[in-house]
Amino acid sequence: MKLLEPTQTSPLTLSEQVQACCTIAREQLELGDYDGGCAALRPWWNLAEWPRHHGLSNEAAAELLLTAGTLSGWIAGTRQIHGDQKWAQALLNGAIALFEQIGEGTRAAEGRIELAGCYYREGLFDLSRATLRAAIESLSEDERDLKVAALIRLASVERHAARLHDALNVLNETSTIAAAAGAWIQGRLHSEFASTLRELGVAENRIHYFDSALGHYREALLHFEKIGNLRFVAAVENNHGYLLLTLGRFDDATVHLQRARDLFNELGDSVGCAQVDETLAQLYLASRQHALAERSVRLAVDTLETTGENALLAEALTTQGLVLCRLGRRHEAKPALERARRVAERCGDYEGAGKSLLILIEEMCEHLANDERREIGLQASQLLATSQVASTRERLRECLDRVASAHAEHERQREFATHADKMAALGELSFGVAHNVNNTLTGILGRAQLLLRTKDEKKISAGIEMIIKSAEDGAHIIRRIQDFARRQPSHKLQPVSVAGLMKDVCEMSRPLWDAGVSGRQIRVALVADCTASVMGDAVELREVLVNMIYNAIDAMPSGGEIRMSAQEINGRVVVNIIDTGTGMTPEVKSRLFDPFFTTKGKGGTGMGMAVSFGIIRRHNGSIDVESEPGRGTTFKISLPVAETESATADESPKQEASVGEDKLRVLVVDDETAVREVLREALEAEGCEVMVAESGEMALKLYDSSKVRVDIVFTDIGMPEMSGWELASEIRKRSETIPLAIVSGWADAISCDARQEIKADWVVSKPFDIATIAGIASEVAGRRKNPVNRGPELAKGDVRTLLGMA
User: Cα(476)–Cα(481) distance, rounded to whole angstroms?
Assistant: First the structure.
């Protein structure tokens, strides 16, 4: 090729020489000889430089900028030169401005078509599409060659954006006006037809698309080989090979792909080589040669990362992620697929971005966290919401079903684990309860059997006292469990001074830590300067703090120091109990508040801290523990500050009365025979006339049919068919003033509102003290004797709780 050189003797002007060289450069471009094109412009321009247009006419300068920009864009798409597309865009924008200035609208449109090519190579599909449409609208019907070139490029953009039917419509439109186009245009048209039909065949699983694509690839090869454009021959061979591997013809595909790579390598086209490497990776993946696939796709990604070809990079990253999944290297696959999604989304390739997420779900669903899996499914749904590809929509549906199924299984497993934890805790609690209660029952049963064998009155009396003591111990165990389980305070909360509370606790615990009493050198430092009060039950709160002190003393067998202080922070009072004892291991600390867990051996019940936890919880508070072996322990008890300091009125004094001359008529209702008989004997011993009923229905019949008055009703709560609550409500319909006593094993759990609703006069906890039952009978008898003391109070329901075995 003979190039024109600018000389003084040339018959052409300088501007005419430039235009002639631009024509030669564009001919070399169509042949795929980018180096030849650059050589033709060398007197006025070198790659990555601004053209030397001094002394040129505006038309010649615009032509120089257009040709240089076009060459820069194509060259940047073949080599590892990051940023050259930006340089090409700058040259082309300069050419467009000059052509518009001199009124060359057609040449300006040509500049826009090449500018859209730069945007396409960068993956800016939306911008490329808009630029092409603007160029096409500006061309007249007579400018067919330019219009065909623009339409072919527009079809390529639509295909890469997975708008396959839009791409096919554009190509069908193009084919009607491209009959007279040259070999270069015809080759590009057939190549784009083939690639679009190939992807439609994959998307819709229609074999006739593949047959048509093979024919178009053959036509494209003929046209490019005819003009000697080996660069486009290599591109067609790569795409042809991809189609063959899609059809499962791996050997034929390998031949075409190897030829493509050899041609790109001879031309120094690193981007083309990378595209072939990515296609080869898919071939190796399909033939289960995973190691070769990983090597090929890594070469492709390494090359494309330095070129700015983002659309191609996104495709390669997606393939790399899939290969890594198949190799079991999920920790590498996930970042690759996430990066593919980001790059593709920036390009406007929402189909490609969504497909990378589908691979994540398909290949790694079971290895993703539940929330992460659902988030990926949501992102894929948004990206593929308008997908025109049927196979992609079907994949999305299957992936979303899989995510939903995995979420349901996750929830099922979570519920199962929660239930298992609850059952394990219940089993441990039951074991502890059984152990302690069985010990108590052994003492009662054994003592009773011994009493049957003796006639010694002293032994009988002592044995009965031991039985009573054992029964009281058993009642105490049950009550501690009830305290732990109770959700609400048993009494109405009142303002309690924190400073006074701490002082009381110090004095109550003094026998255990005072050196003169305990013999151990334990120092208690009290800072009682907090002026706040908390809403609470003073008795229960003292119990909690005493428990903390006892634990601290036990943790200091050789002596030490206990520090108690309190401070008001953000509407709460935080009480600190700090000791210098042995501290706790993480295992002990984690089980500290478990019922029946103790480190004191037979000397501990394991309920002290559990009950303390329950008390603080009922007071809307919290307990935090900080402890390490050898570094002591800190308890932090947080309670809400009392809003008011008003004290509630003291309870009305109990009525003192004696049993009247007339016998009290008592109705006792309980479904347990043993309880009914104990109540009967206890009340008859007080001189009462007793009627018993084993159910609520029987009790109502006795109440309604009795010809004599009923002076008081004792009823259980938990009974079959008609409960004690229902019975009490029916009795209240019959009488608003009859004394009513509730006798229940869960007396403390009955709220004040519930008691008030049925106007219960007494709530007695099982097991009860006989003296408590006798006291109630005595009080009712006293009221009968002095009726003036009974009216208003009894009508309101004089509610009292009697803890029989406190």
Answer: 9
Instruction: Decide: 138 and 105 in contact? Cβ < 8 Å.
Output: yes
388 DSSP assignment: -
Cβ proximity of 213 and 220 under 8 Å: no
- Please state the pTM of the whole predicted model: 0.51
Between the CA atoms of 352, 354, 356 and 358, what dihedral angle is there, to the nearest 10 degrees? -140
Amino acid letter for position 336? A
CA distance 60 to 62: 5
**How many H helices and E strands in the chain?**
31, 13
Q: Is 762 exposed, middle or buried (0-12, 13-18, 19+ CB in 10 A)?
A: buried
Contact (Cβ atoms closer than 8 angstroms) between residue 377 and residue 361 = yes
What sections of 123-179 are H helices per DSSP? Answer: 125-138, 144-160, 164-175
**Angle CA 156–157–160, to nearest 5:** 85
Measured torsion, CA atoms of residues 697, 701, 702, 707, in degrees rounded to the nearest 10? 170
Would you list the DSSP string of 637-691? Answer: EEEEBPS--PPPPPPPPPPP----SSPPEEEEE-S-HHHHHHHHHHHHHTT-EEE
How many percent of the chain have pLDDT more than 70? 83
Amino acid identity, residue 626? E
E-strand stretches of 428-571: 494-497, 522-527, 533-536, 560-569
- Residue closest to 700 by CA, chosen among 661, 730, 662, 732: 730
Report how far residue 136's alpha carbon sits from residue 114's, in angstroms, rounded to the nearest whole number.
Answer: 12
CA distance 287 to 293: 9
Q: How far is CA 284 from CA 265, 287, 315, 334, in A?
A: 20, 5, 16, 21
Contacts of 522-525 spanning 24+ positions with Cβ under 8 A: 522/553, 522/556, 522/559, 522/560, 522/561, 522/562, 523/560, 523/561, 523/562, 524/549, 524/561, 524/562, 524/563, 524/564, 525/561, 525/562, 525/563, 525/564
Report CA 438 to chain centroid distance, whole Å.
Answer: 45
- 692: phi then psi, degrees, rounded to nearest 5: -120, 150
Cα–Cα–Cα angle for 106, 111, 116, rounded to 5 degrees = 125
pLDDT tens track for 411-441:
888 888 777 766 666 665 565 566 556 656 7
Structure tokens that stand for 87 in this block:
């340089």
Longest CA–CA span in the chain (Å) reads 152
**Half-sphere exposure of residue 23, counting CA atoms within 13 Å on the CB side?**
9
Q: What's the average model confidence in pLDDT over 141-145?
A: 85
The mean predicted confidence, pLDDT, of the chain is 82
Are the beta carbons of 625 and 616 closer than 8 angstroms? no
Report the Cα–Cα distance between both ends of the chain, in Å, rounded.
115
Long-range Cβ contact pairs of 337-341 (< 8 A, separation 24 or more): 340/314, 340/315, 341/379, 341/383
Tokens of 482: 């009830």
What would the pLDDT profile of 92-134 be if each residue is shown by its tens digit?
Answer: 999 999 999 999 999 999 999 999 988 888 878 889 999 999 9
- Give pLDDT tens digits for 282-325: 999 999 999 999 999 999 999 988 877 888 899 999 999 999 99
